[in-house]
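Lab channel / #folding
Pinned by the channel admin:
"Please post every new chain as: sequence first, then the C-alpha coordinates as a reply. Keep commentary short and put observations after the output so the thread stays searchable."

First post following the new format, from NK:
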Amino acid sequence: MSDPHAEGNEQDRTSNATDHVEPEEAHHQPEDRIAAIAGELLDRGDSIVYAIVGICFFLGGIFALGYSLWDFVTAIQNPTGPGAISNPWSLFLPAAT
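Reply from TO:
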Protein backbone atom coordinates (compact mmCIF):
# COMPACT_ATOMS: atom_id res chain seq x y z
CA MET A 1 0.00 0.00 0.00
CA SER A 2 1.41 3.39 -0.91
CA ASP A 3 1.73 6.27 1.49
CA PRO A 4 -0.35 9.28 0.34
CA HIS A 5 2.05 11.67 2.09
CA ALA A 6 5.03 10.27 0.19
CA GLU A 7 3.25 10.77 -3.16
CA GLY A 8 2.50 14.36 -2.23
CA ASN A 9 6.15 14.96 -1.39
CA GLU A 10 7.27 13.62 -4.77
CA GLN A 11 4.79 15.83 -6.56
CA ASP A 12 6.08 18.80 -4.59
CA ARG A 13 9.65 17.96 -5.59
CA THR A 14 8.78 17.75 -9.28
CA SER A 15 6.67 20.86 -9.27
CA ASN A 16 9.49 22.76 -7.54
CA ALA A 17 11.91 21.70 -10.26
CA THR A 18 9.64 22.92 -13.04
CA ASP A 19 8.38 26.05 -11.28
CA HIS A 20 11.83 27.58 -11.02
CA VAL A 21 12.57 28.45 -14.67
CA GLU A 22 14.74 31.45 -15.39
CA PRO A 23 14.23 33.52 -18.51
CA GLU A 24 16.55 32.81 -21.45
CA GLU A 25 17.98 36.31 -21.30
CA ALA A 26 19.53 35.62 -17.92
CA HIS A 27 21.56 32.70 -19.39
CA HIS A 28 22.31 34.36 -22.73
CA GLN A 29 26.01 34.16 -23.42
CA PRO A 30 27.72 36.60 -25.74
CA GLU A 31 27.47 35.34 -29.32
CA ASP A 32 30.67 34.65 -31.21
CA ARG A 33 30.21 36.25 -34.62
CA ILE A 34 32.92 34.20 -36.29
CA ALA A 35 31.33 30.96 -35.04
CA ALA A 36 27.90 32.10 -36.23
CA ILE A 37 29.22 33.02 -39.70
CA ALA A 38 31.22 29.80 -39.96
CA GLY A 39 28.20 27.75 -38.90
CA GLU A 40 26.02 29.44 -41.48
CA LEU A 41 28.60 28.87 -44.24
CA LEU A 42 29.01 25.23 -43.25
CA ASP A 43 25.23 24.72 -43.31
CA ARG A 44 25.06 26.20 -46.80
CA GLY A 45 28.16 24.29 -47.88
CA ASP A 46 26.61 21.04 -46.71
CA SER A 47 23.68 21.52 -49.08
CA ILE A 48 26.01 22.46 -51.92
CA VAL A 49 28.15 19.36 -51.38
CA TYR A 50 25.07 17.12 -51.39
CA ALA A 51 23.86 18.76 -54.61
CA ILE A 52 27.24 18.30 -56.30
CA VAL A 53 27.43 14.64 -55.24
CA GLY A 54 23.87 14.04 -56.49
CA ILE A 55 24.63 15.63 -59.84
CA CYS A 56 27.81 13.55 -60.19
CA PHE A 57 25.93 10.32 -59.44
CA PHE A 58 23.23 11.26 -61.96
CA LEU A 59 25.78 12.11 -64.67
CA GLY A 60 27.72 8.92 -63.90
CA GLY A 61 24.55 6.86 -64.33
CA ILE A 62 23.71 8.57 -67.62
CA PHE A 63 27.29 8.00 -68.85
CA ALA A 64 27.20 4.30 -67.87
CA LEU A 65 23.85 3.81 -69.60
CA GLY A 66 25.06 5.59 -72.74
CA TYR A 67 28.29 3.61 -72.84
CA SER A 68 26.51 0.27 -72.38
CA LEU A 69 24.05 1.08 -75.18
CA TRP A 70 26.89 2.24 -77.46
CA ASP A 71 28.87 -0.93 -76.72
CA PHE A 72 25.82 -3.13 -77.36
CA VAL A 73 25.06 -1.48 -80.70
CA THR A 74 28.73 -1.72 -81.73
CA ALA A 75 28.81 -5.43 -80.83
CA ILE A 76 25.65 -6.07 -82.88
CA GLN A 77 27.00 -4.19 -85.91
CA ASN A 78 30.44 -5.83 -85.80
CA PRO A 79 30.03 -9.49 -84.81
CA THR A 80 33.62 -10.33 -85.77
CA GLY A 81 35.23 -7.74 -83.53
CA PRO A 82 37.34 -8.45 -80.44
CA GLY A 83 35.65 -10.79 -78.01
CA ALA A 84 33.26 -12.13 -80.62
CA ILE A 85 32.45 -15.82 -80.70
CA SER A 86 33.07 -17.41 -84.09
CA ASN A 87 30.26 -19.95 -83.69
CA PRO A 88 27.62 -18.88 -81.16
CA TRP A 89 25.98 -22.30 -81.27
CA SER A 90 29.12 -23.82 -79.81
CA LEU A 91 28.05 -22.43 -76.45
CA PHE A 92 24.90 -24.59 -76.47
CA LEU A 93 25.94 -27.74 -78.40
CA PRO A 94 28.35 -30.34 -77.03
CA ALA A 95 31.75 -30.51 -78.65
CA ALA A 96 32.10 -33.14 -81.35
CA THR A 97 34.72 -35.76 -80.46
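NK: The two ends are 95 Å apart (CA to CA).
TO: also worth noting, The chain has a mean pLDDT of 75.
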